[in-house]
Amino acid sequence: xxxxxxxxxxxxxxxxxxxxxxxxxxxxxxxxxxxxxxxxxxxxxxxxxxxxxxxxxxxxxxxxxxxxxxxxxxxxxxxxxxxxxxxxxxxxxxxxxxxxxxxxxxxxxxxxxxxxxxxxxxxxxxxxxxxxxxxxxxxxxxxxxxxxxxxxxxxxxxxxxxxxxxxxxxxxxxxxxxxxxxxxxxxxxxxxxxxxxxxxxxxxxxx
Length: 207
Hints:
The protein is mostly helical. The protein is elongated, with a radius of gyration of 18 Å. Strands 1-2 form a two-stranded antiparallel sheet. A hairpin with a 2-residue loop joins strand 1 (124-125) and strand 2 (128-129). The chain is 73% helix and 2% strand. The protein has a single domain (59-204), classed as Tetracycline Repressor, domain 2. Helix 5 (87-106) runs antiparallel to helix 9 (187-204) and helix 8 packs antiparallel against helix 9 (187-204).
């Protein structure tokens, strides 16, 4: 869990906006873009109804886009802290980091960024602008791949190999969310993680 410690003197308006974005991330993970409602966000954030268009004049799409961007930045920060003593250490650290998150998907949660990526693009649907949300999700996912590739490079891999491994692990993460939500378990993720680690240790060593 990431804990943000705010300095003294931060305006309450800023706290309200941040709480609304955090509540939107939670709602996206639980209900998806179409299922997310302002009612849920207001209840979870404790914000007044007038705060919606004061902080997010672009409405639901703006709130979801900003939640997607914020969640993407938070995850990238966690990836930047992965150990990089070896390629296997990077992969092992990543799979260990995401396992509890995948387990949450098995219990009815999901990935907020993926929820934005899956938003309808058939015109405007319930106030959503699908293309803008897809762009926000693509930017977040691309940043995760880049950060993870950087850790593999720090572990000694050439850039092409590093990016291939990073993209594969992010694909495992997003696929695992879907399978965990569908099956109510994470056996598929654990199997994929075991296979990935066996392959990477065989090629680069187990250190």
